[in-house]
Specification:
mainly beta, 0% helix, seven-stranded mixed beta sheet
Length: 114
């Protein structure tokens, strides 16, 4: 399974960005799809996740600002990020479960700065 992310970039505080991640390859039954981030000098942390049934889980620091969604017909997970803050600056990684395997994308940089 390969994951390709897109949508990162540079935005001013208060702005919005939308990330997407599409899975390809040996796709049979994707389970949880999620987004993590890692800022310089910090550990990778969960941002949001969504199960195959549509249940969503958000980190407290993004609740009310970020929305995760998925399109199973396209094997794609999205992250809509609104009201971005400088502390949201990080490399954002897509993560996908399929049966007992776990896969990571290559990461996409999000920079929030004035």
């Amino acid at each position: 399974v390969q994951l390709v992310e897109s949508g990162g970039g540079f935005v001013q505080p208060g702005g919005s960005l939308s990330l997407s991640c599409t899975a390809s390859g040996s796709i049979f039954s994707i389970g949880v799809m999620g987004w993590y981030r890692q800022a310089p000098g910090k550990q990778r942390e969960l941002v949001a996740a969504i199960t195959s049934g549509g249940a969503r889980n958000y980190a407290d620091f993004v609740k009310g600002r970020f929305t995760i969604s998925r399109d199973d017909a396209k094997n794609t997970v999205y992250l809509q990020m609104n009201n971005l803050k400088p502390e949201d600056t990080a490399v954002y990684y897509c993560n996908v479960d399929q049966y007992t395997s776990n896969y990571w994308g290559q990461g996409t940089q999000v920079t929030v700065s004035s």
